[in-house]
Each structure stands twice: as structure tokens, then as C-alpha cells.
Amino acid sequence: MCATLKYAALYGFVVSLPLALASPILATAIINRQDAAVSANDWDPILIGEKNAQCSDLAVIFARGTFDKGNLGPWVGGPFRDALLKKSSDVKIAVQGVSPDDYPADLAGYTEEGGSDSCARGLGTAVQTYASRCPDSKIAIWGWSQGALCAHKAFGELGDAASNVIALGVFGDPISAWRDTVDYPAIPKGTALLSYCETLTPDPLCTNPAEDFPRGPVAFIERLKAIWREVDAVGMNAAQKKALAGLLIELPSQAMRQLDNLATDILNGHIRRWMLTPQHFWYGIDGKVETAADDLLSLYRGQR
Fold this sequence. Notes:
Elements: H1 3-22, H2 24-34, H3 44-47, E1 58-63, H4 73-87, E2 93-97, H5 107-113, H6 117-133, E3 138-144, H7 146-154, E4 165-171, E5 192-196, H8 217-229, H9 238-256, H10 259-267, H11 288-303
Parallel strand pairs: 1-2, 1-3, 3-4, 4-5
Helix pairs in contact: 1-2, 1-9, 4-11, 6-7, 8-9
């Protein structure tokens, strides 16, 4: 990434920090409820029982990735929502992100639980509520990164609402790096799995990585930092550039607090779980969200 872009992204993050520190409640409200680049709350009227709330044809709930802000995040959830809305003129769509109150999207939920358990419970509760009040709506559960693991886990929290779920969609799904230690629920036979992984410039979390990373935990984190310092930001939108500034701070900071877990995973051959390289963040940039939107809408239209 060129020095000018790197400076601009970091400057934007630093300028926004005093507001968040001075008024955390206000800042959270702004991020979670009003910023359309990182949040969607279309399910809220149904979830809170608002009088005359309209049910959708297709209700989509999205679990964001680690470090993402809002309830969708800018990297994948926001672009996926935009692609769905652009392509669904004949379908009434409602998009919702998993509440940050249920899911902080921090590194601890990923490294210690193999995907946040509270995220799965919150997602499952939202789906049950929506299905109970809109029994004719079709529902799709989606996630990216840690959110994909949350989406998998949510199938253990759906109860009878599982019959409304037509699809589980995942971007950069790390489940293959976690299956040997975490027991994820089976996907019901009536639910299609739509999975998207960056393979040309491979995403290590869903492929077998070729790059040789250091074997010591601190050296591993330093290698990740070096990779991200050199990333090219030209293809990013404004929200993603702002998120990059935060990522350059949050990734090494939170990883350093997880050194024991990282060292254990390196020792046990689970180093791939930690390879949060730029390729893992590209699904909202490389066209895969458009493909996924087409696939989901095709699936829905085939069931009408």
C-alpha cells in the first residue's frame, strides 16, 4: 500500500478515536444503527413486534468476521447486502446483522471457542423469532470468517425454525481448520450449503496455504503485521480503508493477548487457524459477493 493511502487510513482512524472514547454509548449507536456501510437492521420491526411490520419474501441474517464493526462489517457483509439488493427487484429482501450485543467479533471468540458461542445463540434466537412471526418467509443464514463458524453453530440453536432456512452461505469458511476440535452441528438436508473460498491467490483459512510462516508466536504475529503493512488499498471502498486502519492496530494487539493459544496451536499443527492474510478479506472486492447473491436468489426463485 502506498504511503499516502496508509497515512490517510490511519489518520481517519485516529481522528475518530476521541469521539468513541468521549462518548462510547453514542459512538456505538452511530456504528451499529446508522452507518449503512457496516450495518443492516431490516429485521428489527419483526423482532421487536412492531405493529403492521411487513414480512419479507427472503430474510437474510449475516454474521460478520473478527474485528468487523457494526453488525455486518465493511469487508464482506456490507458489499454482500448491496449485491443482494441490486439483484432482487422481484424479491422482497430483509437483511440483518447479528447484534454486537450478542457477538463482539473479537479474536478471543475465534481462538478460544472456534467461533463465538454467544453469536450462535443470538443468531438462532433471531431466526426463531422471525420464523415464528413470518412463517411463510424463507430464511438464509450467512457468515464470513469467524462469522461462518458462528453460522454453522447456529444450526444447533434453531429449533423448529430450521425448516424455514433454505441456505447456509459462507465466505472464507475456516471450518476445515477447526473440525478436529469442535463439533459443529450438521446442516439439515433441506438447507443448501453455498460456500465461497478465494483459491487463485489462496485464502489460507479455507485452503492449504503454501506460504511458510514462522513457528514462534511472536515472530508469526510480526510476519502478519509485515504482510498487512504492504497491502494495496486501491481496490477498497471508503469503509474498507477505514477498517484497514483499525485492523493494523487490532490484529497485532489482540493476537498478542492470545500468545498462549497461538503457541499451543502452532505446537498442535493448527497454525492455519491464525493466517488472517489479506486474501481472507477480499470477498467483498473480488466479485464473490455478486456470485453469492446470484446463487442465493436463484435458489430462492427455484423454491417459489
